[in-house]
Amino acid sequence: MSHPALSTYRFAEGTCIAQATPPEAARVSLDSPATAVMTDLVNVRAACIGPQASLDAAEQRMRESGVRMLFVISDMPCVDGIVTLSDLQGSKPIRLIQAQGLTRAELTVKQVMQALGDIDAVDFEALGRATVGSVVAALQHYGHAYLLAVEAATRGAPPRIRGIFSAAQVERQLGAPLNSVEVAATFAEIATALRG
Q1: Any bridge partners for residue 70, and if so which?
Q2: Which fold has domain 34-195?
Q3: Please, what are the averages of pLDDT over each run of 10 residues along the chain (196 residues)?
Q4: d(CA 38, CA 36)
């Protein structure tokens, strides 16, 4: 059986490339499943940068990727930490410039990133029973803009970051700023809510 070749044509000047536009995130309530507000890294490619990149390069990568947080990776796929737009534009670069006599151009992502060991994470398995309210409570309690969900190590495979909770994303999907949402206030209440 023969197959006819597809017809081709030449590009017109000014042709652009299609840009991925993530689907509009669905509205949620505090009682919705926690995973409804999680960026699942099985479905969405993680935005990454190397630790030796400049702060300007990291900001550029964020703009290009449409995110405000990058995973810092020196040896793919293992994660060194994260760097947020606040890390790049906040007081830490200023303190380093003043203390070490450096210029902003001399600073690297590694100098301002949050090391993996300093980042709070939740167990991905616990999310099956958790609600958006539990996520909001954790974000408020720890005062973080991001919370990572981690799958436990399995035989022959290390633990892996499975998802990201972003305070900004949760606010968009709830339709309200997190500081106006009343949820569990104590660590015990948060732990109980996450365990279901």
Answers
A1: 83
A2: CBS-domain (3.10.580)
A3: 85 78 83 96 94 98 95 92 96 94 95 94 94 94 92 90 96 89 54 55
A4: 6
Strand pairing of 48-49 and 69-72? Answer: parallel
Q: How far apart are CA 69 and CA 149, in angstroms?
A: 15
Q: For residue 30, give both structure tokens.
A: 């505090």
Q: What is the pLDDT of residue 22?
A: 66
Q: What is the pLDDT of residue 38?
A: 96
Q: Which residues lie across from 136 on neighbouring strands?
A: none
Phi, psi of 106, rounded to the nearest 5 degrees: -85, -15
Residue spans of alpha helices (H) in 66-129: 85-89, 91-100, 109-112
135-144 burial string, b = 16+ CB within 10 Å, else e?
bbbbbbbeeb
Percentage helix, strand, coil for the chain under 3-state DSSP, each rounded to 5 = 40, 20, 40
Question: How far lies 156's CA from each of 36, 152, 153, in Å?
Answer: 30, 12, 8
CA distance 184 to 82: 27
pTM of the model: 0.81
